[in-house]
Amino acid sequence: MARRRGNAGFDFSSQMLRLCDDITTRHEAFQHIDMARVAVCFSQARTKALHGLQAKLTPLRFENGSLFGVRNQTRYTVQRVYVGGREMLYILTFVLPRFLNQSFKEKFVTILHELYHISGEFDGDIRRFGGRYHVHSHSQKEYDLQMEIYAREYLAMNPPPELYRFLEVDFTSLSQSHGAIMGMQIPIPKLIPVKDSKTA
């Protein structure tokens, strides 16, 4: 299911994986995450607009890490994803070139925003807040303000600059420096109806 495009240039997926791995090692708020089971990839923006979807986290399990879930009275399982023989629990996708054309601060907030969606149990489900707004709590603005705090805290830990230097330039500059931008692409997994099973 996973594939890489391009034979040379800047490997966006590998570099982003290294950065995320360092974040999840250094910062306490993200230390429950095992990046070996998070597939980091990219998709191409459909328009040249700067604003729009920057990144998304796709969980590969249902609530509480279950392999099965019920939607519209139908029981489903999710298509499994393997990279290098290891089953993934999440897909972290960045939309290019849009993501790379944001400011340095916005890029970091976006990365942490998506990582923080990963369940504290790291079970393939998303982090669920109490109440009606279970994805971003009651305010996405406050959610992102917290991510700004986490970004400042992480950078204050003096991680190696070479891990995040690629975020200091835009898509065109990165492309011109390396000749091409490549990385892993994974189609969004399908929900598969489970036959001959009663819904609960």
Provide a short characterization of the protein structure.
The chain has five helices and eleven strands; from the N terminus they run E-E-H-E-E-E-E-E-E-E-H-H-H-H-E-E. It is of the alpha+beta class. The protein has one domain.
Helical content (DSSP H or I, runs of 4+): 25-40%
- Coarse morphology: globular
Proportion of β residues? 15-25%
Radius of gyration: 17 Å
Count the DSSP helices.
5
Distance between the termini: 31 Å
Largest sheet: 3 strands, mixed
How many structural domains can be distinguished in the coordinates? 1
Order of helices and strands: EEHEEEEEEEHHHHEE
Number of beta strands: 11
- Class derived from helix and strand content: alpha+beta
Low-confidence residue ranges: 1-7, 131-135
Oligomer: single chain
Task: Please list the strands of the largest sheet in the order they lie side by side.
Answer: 1-10-2
Overall mean pLDDT stands at: 89
3D structure, described in words:
This protein has 200 residues and is an alpha+beta fold. It has one domain (3-193). Helices cover 28% and strands 22% of the residues. It has helices at 12-26, 104-116, 140-156, 161-164, 171-178, and strands at 3-5, 10-11, 38-44, 55-59, 68-71, 74-78, 82-83, 86-87, 90-96, 181-185, 191-193. The strands form four sheets. A three-stranded mixed β-sheet has the order 1-10-2. A hairpin with a 2-residue loop joins strand 7 (82-83) and strand 8 (86-87). The protein starts with a strand and ends in a 7-residue tail after the last strand. Residues 1-7 and 131-135 have low confidence and may be disordered.
